[in-house]
Amino acid sequence: MTKLLEWVFGVSVIGAAWALVTFDLLNLRLPVAYKEVAWPMPVYLLVVFGCYSLATVGYRVATFNDCEEASKELQDQIKEAKEDLRKKGLKM
Amino acid sequence: MATGTDRAVGMGLVGFSLLLFTYYTIWVIILPFVDSDHVVHQYFLPREYSVILPGIAALILLLCVGTFIGVVTRKNRKPKVD
């Protein structure tokens, strides 16, 4: 079974369970509170995923370390390359 | 360590997403189990808005992305490309 088929299968199982609770397809007569929680679930999961992505990006922006030596080394190499090309006749 | 503004922006994003997560989780998951005459209900909109507002936000996001792509494409079009 391919990965795509696995995902489609998993999503449809979860989707069927959600539809069962939201639209009361089996006439289970669940308490009202459970139906109230179930029907926004797809949107809720999307919002939670969005929050998690935002938090991860924000945290990694905040903790990314500046690399002073690597930056200086890179600047020197750029200067060197420019000099070299200028000698060979390339106009900058 | 990352520079000052980087840290501020990053931690701001983390804080904002935590706030949003907490408010939305209470709204969607906790409120249905709270008695309807409890005072906490007045801090939350009716339940329909918990689906409508993210839907509108998604539409606005798509609009922004589409507009940006349109503007950049038009700006980079060489003269007489048709």
TrEMBL record, chain A:
The keyword Nucleotide-binding does not apply. Pathway: Protein modification; protein glycosylation. One of its GO terms (biological process) is GPI anchor biosynthetic process. It is found in: Endoplasmic reticulum membrane. Keywords: Coiled coil, Endoplasmic reticulum, Glycosyltransferase, Membrane, Transferase, Transmembrane, Transmembrane helix. Stabilizer subunit of the dolichol-phosphate mannose (DPM) synthase complex; tethers catalytic subunit to the ER. Belongs to the DPM3 family. This is Dolichol-phosphate mannosyltransferase subunit 3. It comes from Oncorhynchus mykiss (Rainbow trout). The lineage of its organism: Eukaryota, Metazoa, Chordata, Craniata, Vertebrata. The gene is DPM3.
TrEMBL record, chain B:
The keyword Glycoprotein does not apply. The keyword Transmembrane helix applies. Component of the dolichol-phosphate mannose (DPM) synthase complex composed of DPM1, DPM2 and DPM3; in the complex interacts directly with DPM3. Component of the glycosylphosphatidylinositol-N-acetylglucosaminyltransferase (GPI-GnT) complex composed at least by PIGA, PIGC, PIGH, PIGP, PIGQ, PIGY and DPM2. Interacts with PIGA, PIGC and PIGQ. The chain crosses the membrane at residues 12-31, 51-72. It is a multi-pass membrane protein. It is found in: Endoplasmic reticulum membrane. GO terms for biological process: dolichol phosphate mannose biosynthetic process; GPI anchor biosynthetic process. Pfam families: DPM2. Belongs to the DPM2 family. Its main location: endoplasmic reticulum. One of its GO terms (cellular component) is dolichol-phosphate-mannose synthase complex. This is Dolichol phosphate-mannose biosynthesis regulatory protein. InterPro entries: DPM2. GO terms for molecular function: enzyme regulator activity. Pathway: Protein modification; protein glycosylation. Regulatory subunit of the dolichol-phosphate mannose (DPM) synthase complex; essential for the ER localization. Regulates the biosynthesis of dolichol phosphate-mannose. Regulatory subunit of the dolichol-phosphate mannose (DPM) synthase complex; essential for the ER localization and stable expression of DPM1. Part of the glycosylphosphatidylinositol-N-acetylglucosaminyltransferase (GPI-GnT) complex that catalyzes the transfer of N-acetylglucosamine from UDP-N-acetylglucosamine to phosphatidylinositol and participates in the first step of GPI biosynthesis. May act by regulating the GPI-GNT complex. Keywords: Endoplasmic reticulum, Membrane, Transmembrane, Transmembrane helix.
